[in-house]
């Protein structure tokens, strides 16, 4: 067993479950075990009810915080049991938590999933609350994964772009030149709009392989209206969330159309919005050549991957599996890495990415 093993926990804006990984980084990176759990439907509904303003929010958030803490602890314990790893071998858990609000325009972000509860129910030191120190230093608090992408995926031989497609999509530009700045930011919606639309009309949680979107035709007027949103044209640093991209926003966009559209065509347009906003962002950096690697749940959407490739002629598009890390586990591994950075008194943010005034050690430590 490596001397220092970390657990990383991630529950993203797609609300599709908890991803847990056990990893070591010394003497080199090793993925020792993975585990994923679907959130109980009652817990999922409680999260969704808090994603928009409502009644009795403080009490509901307090109860959700405890319930999510227990769920994260359970996922950690199940990961260890599944891979026959001892609790005593784990140096720390790095927990992202579940984002309930991300409001960089108001300089705050809120993740739920009580780390005290995680530490208590696992007996393992837990590190959480990674985003707010960056915000305190004037940053967006997101995205945080580019520092990890740079540590694990940088190549001195070729430009690389890592694109995480979760509920939202974000990218990291890793220039081959060691003197060039690493850049990263949210590009806009990833799966969130497609997931919302198919759930509304087919009661499915996601569009498997993008099959429904592939059956439709893009509505040019709708795509143009959506892309006119100022966010897509703002310079980095920038980050976004469900506060901006949600079912209500889709419905508002639809009221501006000349005629009522076919639901399948709307899904095709939402997929094209994600692909186009990602491709626009990548092209804006003027890289003559680059390798583009996708991760996150959206990397399994074949239709989406094909559209991104079509919009990026001259670039190669693959998943991070080609870099020896399965695309489903990249973000969870990133938060294990961030926990390691915290304990080693090393920064976890990149000011060129978040806009913070400098490098900062991120996260709060909750002893076992």
Kindly describe this structure.
The protein has helices at residues 41-50, 57-82, 115-122, 132-136, 145-153, 192-202, 211-215, 220-227, 247-254, 263-283, 302-311, 330-343, 351-354, and strands spanning 5-11, 18-24, 30-37, 90-103, 108-112, 126-128, 160-165, 168-174, 183-189, 291-295, 316-319, 364-366. It is built from 13 helices and twelve strands. 38% of the residues lie in helices and 21% in strands. The strands form two sheets. Strands 1, 2, 3, 4, 5, 6 and 12 form a seven-stranded mixed sheet that branches. The radius of gyration is 20 Å and the shape is globular. The mean pLDDT is 95. It folds into two domains: 5-140 and 329-366, Nucleotidyltransferase, domain 5, CATH 3.30.420.40; 145-323, ATPase, nucleotide binding domain (Nucleotidyltransferase, domain 5). The protein is of the alpha/beta class and 368 residues long.
Summarize this entry quickly.
With 368 residues, the protein is of the alpha/beta class.
Largest sheet, if any?
7 strands, mixed
- What CATH architecture of the largest domain would you give? 2-Layer Sandwich
Radius of gyration equals 20 Å
Q: Give the CATH level 1 class of the largest domain.
A: Alpha Beta
Poorly predicted parts: none
Tell me the span between the first and last alpha carbons: 21 Å
Instruction: Please provide the count of β strands.
Output: 12
Strand percentage: 15-25%
Total of domains: 2
Topology, please?
Elements: E1 5-11, E2 18-24, E3 30-37, H1 41-50, H2 57-82, E4 90-103, E5 108-112, H3 115-122, E6 126-128, H4 132-136, H5 145-153, E7 160-165, E8 168-174, E9 183-189, H6 192-202, H7 211-215, H8 220-227, H9 247-254, H10 263-283, E10 291-295, H11 302-311, E11 316-319, H12 330-343, H13 351-354, E12 364-366
Helix pairs in contact: 1-2, 2-3, 6-10, 8-10, 10-11
């Amino acid at each position: 067993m490596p001397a220092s093993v970390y657990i990383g926990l991630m529950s993203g804006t797609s609300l599709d479950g908890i991803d847990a990984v056990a990893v070591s980084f010394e003497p080199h990176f090793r993925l020792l075990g993975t585990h994923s759990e679907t959130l109980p439907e009652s817990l999922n509904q409680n999260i969704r009810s808090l994603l928009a303003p409502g009644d009795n929010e403080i009490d509901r958030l307090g109860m959700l915080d405890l319930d999510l803490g227990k769920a994260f602890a359970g996922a950690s314990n199940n990961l260890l049991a599944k891979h026959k790893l001892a609790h005593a071998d784990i140096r720390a858990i790095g927990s992202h938590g579940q984002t309930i609000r991300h409001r960089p325009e108001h300089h705050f972000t809120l993740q739920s999933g009580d780390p005290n509860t995680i530490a208590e129910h696992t007996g393992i030191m837990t590190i959480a609350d990674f985003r707010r120190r960056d915000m305190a230093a004037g940053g967006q608090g997101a995205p945080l994964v580019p520092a990890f992408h740079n540590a694990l995926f940088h190549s001195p031989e070729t430009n690389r772009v890592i694109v995480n497609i979760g509920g939202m999509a974000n990218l990291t530009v890793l220039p081959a030149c060691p003197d060039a700045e690493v850049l990263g930011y949210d590009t806009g919606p990833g799966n969130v709009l497609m997931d919302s639309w198919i759930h509304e009309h087919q009661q499915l949680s996601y569009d498997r392989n993008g099959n429904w979107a592939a059956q439709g035709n893009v509505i040019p007027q709708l795509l143009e209206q959506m892309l006119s949103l100022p966010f897509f044209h703002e310079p980095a640093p920038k980050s976004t969330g469900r506060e901006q991209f949600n079912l209500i926003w889709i419905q508002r966009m639809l009221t501006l159309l000349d005629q009522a559209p076919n639901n399948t065509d709307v899904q095709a347009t939402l997929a094209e919005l994600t692909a186009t906003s990602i491709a626009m962002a990548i092209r804006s950096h003027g890289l003559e050549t680059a390798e583009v690697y996708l991760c996150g749940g959206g990397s399994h959407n074949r239709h989406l991957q094909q559209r991104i490739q079509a919009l990026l002629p001259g670039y190669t598009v693959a998943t991070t599996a080609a870099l020896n890390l399965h695309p489903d586990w990249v973000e969870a591994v990133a938060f294990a890495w961030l926990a390691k950075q915290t304990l080693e008194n090393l920064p976890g943010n990149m000011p060129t990415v978040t806009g913070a005034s400098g490098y900062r050690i991120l996260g709060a430590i909750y002893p076992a």
